[in-house]
């Protein structure tokens, strides 16, 4: 409970002692107070602080002493501006705004022109000499107050406005078409609406208006939308909001007035030029509402945009003042500012300053240039760029979905943002056709229900990939990321009808369209959206400042960043993006090429004769070796972790008649025999079936062949002088006994391979940790493993019991916003409380048994900034991610290190 002496109300610029300004006064209040102290021209006012909000909630609005403090601050404000609230001749008008330390949806917005009533509006009319202006201000107050304080829905006011415009001849006419008399009539009608719809009248007493507005702000803290937002974002309920009461200034009292917004640097390129817009003779909300076309601020911007009459031309004095203030504010806050201003009869006022939102391009440039200007240090610069935003820079992109929606462009279907970037192409439903059309120079998008290894050539040929089913770690998603192709996976609104050669799409809004192969579509892989037709795709940018920023980031991170890559070209790309090794080379991906796929199928379907199987393995061995040679060369001096076969068998078995036929011919057995063998190998639940080391144990010749291929390649490279560092990894391990049985087999094959070449190469043997049991028995596993790599795709699948391939059906329900059951897709962002705890436990138990154990993570989470932060905190040695995410991961790892140091107080 508050005591009598508690000070709740602070005039802008007042001393608040040791209190943290944003916490006490909210973001807006702290900014206004700070600017007042800097002697920036801010209309005077006061803030009722967040302690008052807490007390309000505790006392249900009976905060002791608050009333008197508001009266006192109001009196001071009246003395300051020389006008009194409610004065019939020259009334003081104020704005009332909420302002918490963190802005959030659902909070009460702004009330302007508070203080007007039937009497003072006449005073304002007389004093300003502009009756239209006065009644326009009054109707705005009635509308805003009626809505946010008295709970009358806005549509009633809008309806009345349209009706009146209709009576004047045109319901769609501009507001400026209503004269003073019409606005006076509108005020009468608004009053009548309030009398009818609200449970209390519009208060004529200005002080009662103020009290009502203050109560509305405090009560809005508790509304369900704001509460939900706080819960989702872990914002404490005790934070509370402040209320800002500020003298109104008017930008709409003639041609020596105006309102606008200003950015201290370009929010799109980061260039060090003032950027902004203003409207002459207008209030701030008119600029935002976009009713009239605003003008540029500077002459040079006017020339570029071929506009006339920049602020610099029409009001040179205020422009000068504004430029000076902008420079001071930026220097003071040490960041690009977004400033709202009003010019009243030639006098400039600043209404708000805040950190300006910016594109990724601008963020990088501003951060680096501010270091050069001595405004911030390098760590601050590194922290200033959101890692995910680099995606915008490194890939072709579409405008933001909201931006497109404003232009009337809506997606025809929504799926998961499986692989970033944007692509335009004609719909193709078959991989062979995709390849054929691409060879003819056509841009195609491969649209499938799902993809399998049989589609790889089509995926490579396509500009982008769409699937109707599957999640963030489905075949399509993983392969597309590896190929650096844009992909929207699991677009459940799509019905891909192969037989009918049609794609039916149901949009998030429920509309359906039917598309045929050949029609153009545009993919937004960054947001998981599909558009009909061809949209403008921007190309990836090159920004010189990015290189410097990444250098600073690399200098600060502890986590190593490796890449998931399984082709020589993938390895080279990875190195160019700064990979410090390969964390996962999925050898089954090396079998995807058409000629190899057939050999693999023959090996699998060879039947019970080991000799026949060996024959097909022998065909594969040189292909594997050649790939490894190239990969080792690309990764000279860096570790390369190669995972022995972990096939999803179901993805390899032939389905189509022609594939069955090909296998039957190659093996020289009847096609029916092949079909039967394929059927026998069918598994109901292949993700939990015959995969990983289970294959290695039942068919050790496969792992022997792969080990030979790795070490022969390593020996060959070492002889060329390449510094090779192979790490052989065994997948899907549950038991220490599995490792104990397989390790000698691998070691023996390695020994033989090296002996046959007379070479000596150091290599490691380690294990993937993809099952909860493996995390729990990690100590025993560490006895047989020199390194661990957490495969958090499977670990998430097996810990949550959610199938990677089928999650798309229901997971969107779990993660929808707002009010979902989960904060994020657990296949994209590590579920730190569940899966993350297992990773922590596994790491601790493994290291307790083997101190030098190297520990990494190679699931898709290795490219997600929040998951990377967690990996840093639990002390992993590295994360490994798909090549396009490498710069993001590097930056995220640096930020994790800087944040950890700061929170340790180092
Ligand atoms: C994993 O399970 O996290 C992993 C990296 O392996 P894959 O995605 O190939 O199953
Ligand atoms: Mg796995």
Protein model, in words:
With 906 residues, the protein is of the alpha/beta class. Helix content is 46%, strand content 16%. An 8-stranded mixed sheet has the order 13-23-22-15-16-17-18-14. An 8-stranded parallel beta barrel has the order 24-25-26-27-28-29-30-31, surrounded by 5 helices. A 5-stranded antiparallel sheet has the order 1-2-7-5-6. Strand 24, helix 22 and strand 25 form a beta-alpha-beta unit. The longest helix has 25 residues. The two termini are 37 Å apart. Bound molecules: phosphoenolpyruvate (PEP) and magnesium ion. The site of magnesium ion (MG) has 4 residues, from helix 33.
Topology:
Elements: E1 9-11, H1 21-37, E2 45-48, H2 50-59, H3 66-81, E3 84-85, E4 91-92, E5 94-100, E6 111-114, H4 120-128, H5 131-148, H6 154-167, H7 180-197, H8 206-220, H9 224-232, E7 241-247, E8 258-263, E9 275-280, H10 284-289, E10 295-296, H11 299-304, H12 311-314, H13 316-333, E11 337-344, E12 347-355, H14 360-372, H15 378-384, H16 390-394, H17 401-406, E13 413-414, E14 416-419, E15 422-428, H18 431-439, E16 444-448, H19 456-461, E17 464-467, H20 475-483, E18 486-489, E19 494-497, E20 502-506, E21 512-515, E22 520-524, E23 529-532, H21 544-556, E24 560-564, H22 568-576, E25 582-586, H23 594-604, H24 610-634, E26 639-643, H25 649-652, H26 657-667, H27 671-681, H28 693-698, H29 700-720, E27 725-730, H30 736-757, E28 764-769, H31 772-776, H32 778-782, E29 787-790, H33 792-800, H34 811-815, H35 832-849, E30 854-857, H36 865-873, E31 878-881, H37 886-903
Parallel strand pairs: 3-4, 15-16, 16-17, 17-18, 24-25, 24-31, 25-26, 26-27, 27-28, 28-29, 29-30, 30-31
Antiparallel strand pairs: 1-2, 2-7, 5-6, 5-7, 8-9, 8-11, 9-10, 11-12, 13-23, 14-18, 15-22, 19-20, 20-21, 22-23
Phosphoenolpyruvate binds at residues 473, 478, 584, 586, 770, 791-794, 858-859.
């Amino acid at each position: 409970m508050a005591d009598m002496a508690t000070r709740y109300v602070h005039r802008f610029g007042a001393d608040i002692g040791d209190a943290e300004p944003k916490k006490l006064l909210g973001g807006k209040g702290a900014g206004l107070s700070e600017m007042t102290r800097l002697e920036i021209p801010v209309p005077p006012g006061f803030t009722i602080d967040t302690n008052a909000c807490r007390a309000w909630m505790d006392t249900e609005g009976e905060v002791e002493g608050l009333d008197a403090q508001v009266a006192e601050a109001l009196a001071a404000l009246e003395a300051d501006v020389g006008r009194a609230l409610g004065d019939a001749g020259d009334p003081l008008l104020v704005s009332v705004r909420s302002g918490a330390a963190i802005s959030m949806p659902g909070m009460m917005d702004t009330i302007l022109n508070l203080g007007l009533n039937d009497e003072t509006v006449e005073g304002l009319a007389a004093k300003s000499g502009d009756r239209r202006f006065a009644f326009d201000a009054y109707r705005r107050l009635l509308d805003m107050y009626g809505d946010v304080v008295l709970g009358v829905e806005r549509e009633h006011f809008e309806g009345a406005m349209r009706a009146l415009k209709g009576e004047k001849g045109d319901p769609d006419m501009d507001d400026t078409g209503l004269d003073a008399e019409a606005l006076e009539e509108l005020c009468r009608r608004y009053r009548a609406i309030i009398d009818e719809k609200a449970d209390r009248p519009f208060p004529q007493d200005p002080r009662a208006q103020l009290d009502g507005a203050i109560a509305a702000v405090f009560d809005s803290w508790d509304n369900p939308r704001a509460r939900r937002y706080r819960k989702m974002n872990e914002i404490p309920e005790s934070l509370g909001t402040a209320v800002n009461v500020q003298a109104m200034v008017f930008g709409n009292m003639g041609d020596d007035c105006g309102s606008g917004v200003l950015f201290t640097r370009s929010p799109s390129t980061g260039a060090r030029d003032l950027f902004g817009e203003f409207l002459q003779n207008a209030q701030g909300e008119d600029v935002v509402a976009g009713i009239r076309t605003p003008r540029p601020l500077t002459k040079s911007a006017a020339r570029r945009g071929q506009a006339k009459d920049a602020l610099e031309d029409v009001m040179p004095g205020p422009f000068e003042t504004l430029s000076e203030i902008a420079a001071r504010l930026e220097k003071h806050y040490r960041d690009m500012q977004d400033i709202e201003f009003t010019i009243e009869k030639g006098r400039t006022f600043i209404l708000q300053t805040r950190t300006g939102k910016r594109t990724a391009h601008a963020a990088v440039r501003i951060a680096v240039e501010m270091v050069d200007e001595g405004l911030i240090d390098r760590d601050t610069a590194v922290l200033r760029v959101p890692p995910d935003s680099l995606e915008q820079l490194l890939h072709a992109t579409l405008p933001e979905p909201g931006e497109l929606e404003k232009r009337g462009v809506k997606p025809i279907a929504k799926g998961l943002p499986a692989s970033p970037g944007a692509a335009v192409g004609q719909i193709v439903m078959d991989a062979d056709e995709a390849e054929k059309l691409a060879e003819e120079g056509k841009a195609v998008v491969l649209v499938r229900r799902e993809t399998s290894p049989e589609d790889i050539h089509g995926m490579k040929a396509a500009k982008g990939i769409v699937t109707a089913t599957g999640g963030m770690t489905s075949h399509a998603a993983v392969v597309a990321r590896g190929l650096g192709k844009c992909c929207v996976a699991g677009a459940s609104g799509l019905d891909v009808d192969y037989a009918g050669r049609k794609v039916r799409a149901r949009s998030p809004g429920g509309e359906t369209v039917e598309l045929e192969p050949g029609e153009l579509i545009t993919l937004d892989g960054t947001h998981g959206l599909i558009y009909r037709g061809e949209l403008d795709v921007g190309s990836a940018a090159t920004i010189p400042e990015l290189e410097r920023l990444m250098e600073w980031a690399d200098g600060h991170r502890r986590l190593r960043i490796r890449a998931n890559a399984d082709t020589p070209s993938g390895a080279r790309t990875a190195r160019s993006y700064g990979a410090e090794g390969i964390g996962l080379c999925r050898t089954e991906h090396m079998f995807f090429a058409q000629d190899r796929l057939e050999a693999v199928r023959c090996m699998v379907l060879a039947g019970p004769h080991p000799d026949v199987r060996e024959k097909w393995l022998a065909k594969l061995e040189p292909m594997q070796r050649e790939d490894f040679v190239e990969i080792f060369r690309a990764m000279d001096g860096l570790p390369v972790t190669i995972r022995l076969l972990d096939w999803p068998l179901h993805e390899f078995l032939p389905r189509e008649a022609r594939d069955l036929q090909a296998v039957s011919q190659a093996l020289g057995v009847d096609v029916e025999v092949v079909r039967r063998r394929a059927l026998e190998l069918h598994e109901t639940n292949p993700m939990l079936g015959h995969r990983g080391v289970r294959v290695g144990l039942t068919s050790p010749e496969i792992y022997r062949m792969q080990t030979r291929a790795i070490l022969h390649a390593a020996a060959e490279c070492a002889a060329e002088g390449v510094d090779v560092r192979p790490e052989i990894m065994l997948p899907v391990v549950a038991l220490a006994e599995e490792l104990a049985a397989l390790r000698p087999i691998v070691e023996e094959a390695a020994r033989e391979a090296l002996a046959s070449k007379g070479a000596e190469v150091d290599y490691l043997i380690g294990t993937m940790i993809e099952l909860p049991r493996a995390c729990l028995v990690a100590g025993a596993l560490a006895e047989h493993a020199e390194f661990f790599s957490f495969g958090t795709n499977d670990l998430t699948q097996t810990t949550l019991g959610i199938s990677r391939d089928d999650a798309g059906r229901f997971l969107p329900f779990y993660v929808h916003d707002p009010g979902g059951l989960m904060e994020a897709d657990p296949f994209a962002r590590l579920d730190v409380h569940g899966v993350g705890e297992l990773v922590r436990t596994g790491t601790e138990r493994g290291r307790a048994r083997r101190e030098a154990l190297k520990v990494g993570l190679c699931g898709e989470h290795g490219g997600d900034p929040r998951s990377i932060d967690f990996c840093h905190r639990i002390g992993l040695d590295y994360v490994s991610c798909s090549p396009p995410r490498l710069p993001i991961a590097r930056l995220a790892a640096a930020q994790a290190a800087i944040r950890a140091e700061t929170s340790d107080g180092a």
